[in-house]
């Protein structure tokens, strides 16, 4: 089995890099503070569940049925109530979710439970923490969650796998979950009804997918700022479109910040004097476009941070804080909707819009490079011998398909509510669909950036000048070291993926740009 010295604490909020690291074995520390919270929360639940006489309140999922059947009594035995929670949720369909999403979702679930408000057994959190030290990953079907009462169906599959039911992966191999637990050196999880409900009644899959997609789009956004600078330098453009006074007059913080980063990248550039007075919008308006994307991504930053720090479950257990003397120190259960994934749904829809427009920009910039009428007289399709060779013609066709796929997927999901569950869930956010869709779109955006990078690398080979700005030259040299020129023609799919991975790796935060969630990036094409 793989081992790691990397560690994450369950006290305090998680961050996106921790979710990314959870794809590999990870030490999850249940510290004294977390254990104290768990013990206190379990006592609160126990006091309410086993109180005296008329003081025993109804507790959703512990004494009742589930969903629309909440008005009926649940099973009397607590262990049997676990199966009552999980069995009917085994209704998912489709391919398995990516393993990095499943493990990130379980890390989020573990952190939420460790806050002590869900009333779960401390052993549940201990056993989840033990799983992260291995490569064990539940096999979870993609389709089935509406993101309203949490991600019930996908999290039920994850929970069942931890009990030895269903299927799971170990070291990347799919097998029956019971065999996977044995291979990973883990014991099947034993749950009561409260534990089982708490494991499924949160938006952890939605938040995990959104956070991972957000990081990938952040990386692509950073890459597109640098690629746009390289494009402008190779073509000999005047950098006046980045003028500090111009962008300050525009009045949008994101554009001001994007322009500042791009001016730093273009320090030392020398205009050729042969370009038109006004460049096409894919160059001239790039700081406004990239700046608007930055402003939108900052909103998504905030939603992701709140979801990573919050508790997503129902019900929750608290000490009575009403101030009444007779209630002091007593436990209370609160039923509400902290499992409702509307913030993530809206954020994922906004992220999809950003992804689509960044994809448009990358595709249009590659198209500009291909066209002798706009690229300064370079050969069409950047082919060394047009007709006898075809350069990046196939790559451009693929980018058109990528953009079409992104646009098709960009339809908002967060307002497409459908009532379900006998109108108990009469309004739902579809945050899971929104987040998973954004995750897929982010992968395509990375490939669009890789395609543009490949075109920029080829541009110099077919006659463009060397970059005059050191920052641009450094990026071109990295691409040149990685990818040989397209001469003669060859399949370029692997080269696009290699360029995309290089850009994602380079998109880590640097001292000149504030860290706004870019610390962890998902590399496309792996």
What would you say this structure looks like, in words?
With 526 residues, the protein is mostly helical. Helix content is 51%, strand content 6%. The chain contains 18 helices and nine strands. The protein has helices at 16-21, 32-49, 78-86, 99-113, 122-132, 152-162, 177-184, 193-200, 204-235, 244-250, 253-265, 281-284, 286-309, 342-370, 393-409, 431-461, 470-482, 493-506; strands at 7-9, 27-29, 93-96, 137-138, 141-143, 167-170, 173-176, 316-319, 331-334. The strands form four sheets. Strands 4-6-7 form a three-stranded antiparallel β-sheet. A two-stranded parallel sheet has the order 1-2. β1 (7-9), α1 (16-21) and β2 (27-29) form a beta-alpha-beta unit. α4 packs antiparallel against α5, α9 packs antiparallel against α13 (286-309) and α14 (342-370) runs parallel beside α16. The longest helix has 32 residues, at 204-235. The radius of gyration is 26 Å and the shape is elongated. Residues 510-521 have low confidence and may be disordered.
